[in-house]
Amino acid sequence: TAGITQAPTSQILAAGRSMTLRCTQDMRHNAMYWYRQDLGLGLRLIHYSNTAGTTGKGEVPDGYSVSRANTDDFPLTLASAVPSQTSVYFCASSDWTASTDTQYFGPGTRLTVL
Amino acid sequence: AQKVTQAQTEISVVEKEDVTLDCVYETRDTTYYLFWYKQPPSGELVFLIRRNSFDEQNEISGRYSWNFQKSTSSFNFTITASQVVDSAVYFCALSEGPGGYQKVTFGIGTKLQVIP
Fold first, then answer.
1. Which tens digit of pLDDT belongs to each residue from B36-70?
2. In this complex, do B107 and A42 lie within 8 Å of one another by their Cβ atoms?
3. Rounded to whole angstroms, what are the CA distances from A43 to A50, A58, A91, B85?
4. Of A74, B20, B27, B61, which one has the greatest count of Cβ atoms within 10 A?
5. Beta-carbon separation of B105 and A107 below 8 A
6. For residue A1, is pLDDT > 60?
7. What part of B 25-54 touches A (C-beta under 8 Å)?
């Protein structure tokens, strides 16, 4: 089973350009999440989605947008990238109807904004 | 505001030693969730455990055990008979309210090195 896939694996992006980080899960989980990980700051939640068609803001949503048109996909868009958005981005999913509600993570996307 | 403190930045132990990773949290909510995650040197993130605030029962999973004490606002993680494969950064996290992962705050992590 693939679990969660993220694309691209890494990217160098010029400041001011837009980019969409892709995330797809094949576990039919209802909830999905985007985190960023920065050295010394740990992980921070950007946006989440409890079910298809709904999204919510996490701790650091500014400069990012998400959509959840279906259960499997949860793309993260940077409309106009800035250097402070250089980070490693992780997508995750979970099934909040399950008793254990284990969270699964994708392999991450390393983004550098110059 | 919620807060998670992992005071141990780095820990080194010799293989087969037991090691405890500390996690202290702050929250004003009576309903909250606590988590531990593992990030090996390869970089992937692995979910280890999720515990809600109404369940103070300690948890054991193989060599891993977790001690949740509301009286001291702590959710410590112990690895028994450590192995080299346990070398990783471990994150403790807290999420306030009944929503699970939606309002999560992570600690900065504890880097564990297990020396053969």
1. 999 999 999 999 999 889 888 888 889 999 999 99
2. yes
3. 19, 11, 11, 22
4. A74
5. no
6. no
7. 35, 43-47, 50
